[in-house]
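Students often ask why inverse folding is considered easier than folding. One informal answer: many sequences map to the same fold, so there is more than one right answer. In these notes we will look at a single instance of the problem. The structure comes first.
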């Protein structure tokens, strides 16, 4: 009878033990807060997040105070395993930053291998820069535009690929 009870209880205990061990979560040097603050003064530095619970550590002599989930995180590495997405249609996005001085980024999407043209015009309609004039493979592209040789003002950039043509405005400031 005892042998049957042990054979019945042993698998239950093993299952309970494994669930307990594998359900533990370890959070090292991270924060799940919705915002944050870094404040410092002579000999004191405070780092915190909104909604942070206090569980912390206090010391003296040049003071160290670590409370909640946030500790002195030195580096956060994020691995991007998301495969590159090929757009379903030609797309031209607003440059960023805008207004800019003197460099901005222009992003566009190409759904199939195509000859692409990306030009910049002033308000008089004169072409002031040719950024792209070549065949491009499918995917999203970002082109850096350095306008350091141009005067401040409004500019228009045109994206052309096959029958698709789109214009956007941008502002260069000094």
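Output (designed amino acids):
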């Amino acid at each position: 009878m005892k042998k049957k009870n042990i054979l019945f209880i042993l698998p239950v205990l093993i299952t309970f033990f494994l669930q307990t061990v594998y359900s533990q979560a370890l959070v090292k040097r991270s924060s799940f807060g919705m915002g944050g603050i870094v404040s410092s003064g002579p000999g004191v530095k405070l780092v915190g997040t909104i909604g942070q619970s206090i569980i912390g550590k206090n010391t003296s002599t040049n003071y160290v105070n670590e409370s909640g989930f946030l500790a002195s995180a030195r580096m956060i590495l994020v691995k991007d395993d998301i495969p590159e997405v090929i757009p379903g249609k030609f797309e031209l996005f607003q440059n960023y930053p805008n207004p800019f001085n003197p460099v901005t980024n222009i992003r566009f999407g190409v759904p199939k291998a195509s000859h692409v043209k990306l030009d910049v015009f002033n308000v008089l309609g004169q072409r002031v820069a040719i950024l792209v004039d070549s065949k491009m493979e499918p995917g999203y592209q970002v082109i850096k535009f350095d306008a350091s040789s141009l005067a401040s003002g409004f500019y228009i950039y045109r994206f052309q690929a096959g029958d698709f043509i789109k214009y956007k405005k941008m502002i260069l400031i000094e």
